[in-house]
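MODEL INPUT / OUTPUT PAIR
PAIR INDEX: 1
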Amino acid sequence: MRRVVFTQKGGVGKSSIACNLAAISAARGLRTLVVDLDPQGNASEYLLDARAAGLSHTVQDFFEQTLSIKNLISSADPETFVHATRFPNLSVMPSGPELDFLQPKLEARQKIYKLRDALDKLGRRYDRIFVDTAPAANFFTRSALIAANRCLVPFDCDNFSRQSLYQVLETIGELREDHNPGLRLEGIVVNQFQPNAKLPQTLIDELVAEGLPVLPQHLSQSVKMRESHQAHLPLIHLAPQHKLTLQFVELFEGLEGAQAKGLKRDASRAS
């Protein structure tokens, strides 16, 4: 299963959600990969700490080699660009700071399917792949959505986040029609939720009334997440019994349960 965590609004917790779900997946014994397509590299730093700086063989290097003449003859194994973390079963394809500068060349050379091809190969080695993206519908985000099965959209309960959500829905619809008919909006993840405030619940109720798939597991606002970033430790390792950690676990289990039901339903239809 390949999940992209994407929204066009910054500061809503994309990297935190992708990394913490991936860490839980790995802790459950699933071979798990995080692909960091955000030039800021927050996911890479979170999971690799100081090692993320100055790494060779990054996702940037992966895309650069697709532009090489040598790649017409033979391309490097995508596993070359994957780095193990200190957490069992969890690996990262780290970001690179020059990703933005590669976009025009990649677009001009029509390399939009290269990530999909790489994840097809990596999918034989990893049970779950989580892709973190920049808050923009750029070449790399489109590449990720073309390569993915599902998209999770963080929502932090304000009107800007709501407008971004509608933009994401439009982007998913276009890419599904033109490039990836198997792409689905898996759910809207309510993040930094304040249960005692009126506005967040009002916005959630309105989205549900519109028929949008708001996931029932809401992630609370907590300083523990900042502590997790500072320590370079996903919550499942930093504070396994903390309220926010348990909410992440509940979210992960809900996604896994829905996935299992979907596979069972598809098998039933096939038979």
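PAIR INDEX: 2
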Amino acid sequence: MVALDLDGTTFDSTGGISVRTVGTLEDAAAAGVHIVVSTGRSYASLPKHIKDVSGIEYAITSNGAHVNRMNSGEQIYSDFLDPQAVERVAELKAETGADMEVFINGKAYVDESYYNDVKENGCPYRNAEYVIWSRKPVPDVTALMMEHRHEVENVNLIFQTLELLVESKPKVCAIENANVTSSFINNLEIGGPNTSKKTALLWLTDRLGISTDELMCCGDAPNDMAMLELAGIGVAVANAWGGLKDHADYITASNDDDGVALAIEKFVLKR
């Protein structure tokens, strides 16, 4: 099995996927390798150009909250936040003034005010186009989250400055029955206590009868750390950050230089 993070790893800096990478994934699938997307994105936030890659069987989404069949979107595994943890997240949003994205039923919701600001002014730390097409604006995302507190997959707190993130991080990490990670420099992502890409991969490898020694994982960010440590071969792209390279068995080229394709060619296709 090969499990791949998307943003900053399989996708290049524009959010695209190279012809070489697509061809390599299809070759690996044809050779009998299970190809799995393992991402912090919700299922609805997966772009067409990754869903169209033949051979990708499964998508681990929302940092491990769901395992979906890639083609149909069918959820075959789920794990949610504790409702009391959700309530604490709502309190911290109010205390810190952070922007918030809430993942429910495979979709990502944001406040209309945040959405409109990104639409009108862009975003200095994130791809604004991605936010606009993948996020669903609502009048009050906190109210929506509380209404669906038993169905929350993941919550993403976004801080306007790194200073505010550093100040807020101890409070966020102290939330009981929750797991905190990050996929880009300005955010903290809160999931259930057992929610992670690693846990979802353990469930999937067990279901398919695959040893983790036969698993290769590729990533670029702290939310990929546990799955790289789990894998027989953990691969970090050259542009990885947050200490991920220290947890990798191999460092490949960057996401803009076909790093994922090179790693699959080297370790899976042996060419």
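PAIR 2 NOTE: The first strand starts at residue 2 and ends at 4.
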